[in-house]
Ig-like domain-containing protein
Amino acid sequence: MTITVEYPPEITTEKAVVRTGEGDHVELVCLVHGRPEPEVTWTQDGHQLPDTDMDTKLYLPEGRTDDFMNHLSQIHVAHRHTLTIRNVTEKDFGAYMCIAENRHGQKDAIIQMTGLPKRPVITSSPIGGESNSYTLTWETESFYPITEFLIKYRKPHLDGWPANRSIVIAGSWETVSLKVRPVQVRDGARHAMTHTLKRLEVATDYLTVVRVRNKYGWSAESEHFSFSTKKAMAVLQSTSSSTGGHEAASVSLVLLLVAVFSLIMM
């Protein structure tokens, strides 16, 4: 006796965001499970795409040549459904929805195809090696050269603490914005960047965020990153002050004992 369990579609994507550019070749992939096997369709910004190469002629925009027939294609092997886009153009950017449906229900997932840079990831050490400066490094992904970056930084709180310690007032943001010479990337679309922040305070904690820009616009901000300038000098000063205090206390104690001894001898 064989029992077959049927269930509604389940769908996931290999990548939620695909970063690409003009002339590129990309594959958008969704993984679909369900019983009975779901039917899968794709849309771009709400417009249905052809589900087979043969159907492409029905979706040809007026005035397009047969070259467009090779622009989009769909295949699926087992549970893996792939929408292939060849010779990408700016018009291909947008939100692609993979829709799976069987008699038990429908499920969908969205893949965003964009030319914008990826949100930067800060890679530098949080412990700075300089007293009044800090070298910030980060990485991002972009099919196009990065043309500009924006760094914001501030102290997590102002010097000193409120008497009741119930409210912490953050420092104001300082901003650094610089245009950079575009550099073509050979290894995929990864960019490694660096900038040195100067005129910082000694042994001080800071908070920073980074954004980058390419020809299509700005990335999202990086996650907040905490760093500090070199603290060894402050520790040394603190130790010196502490040592000086102990020496002074020892001298005072000796003088007091001498005075007491003198009174006893009298």
About this structure: Residues 53-60 have pLDDT under 50 and may be disordered. The chain has two domains: 7-114, 121-231. The longest helix spans residues 232-265. The CA atoms of residues 19 and 218 lie 13 Å apart.
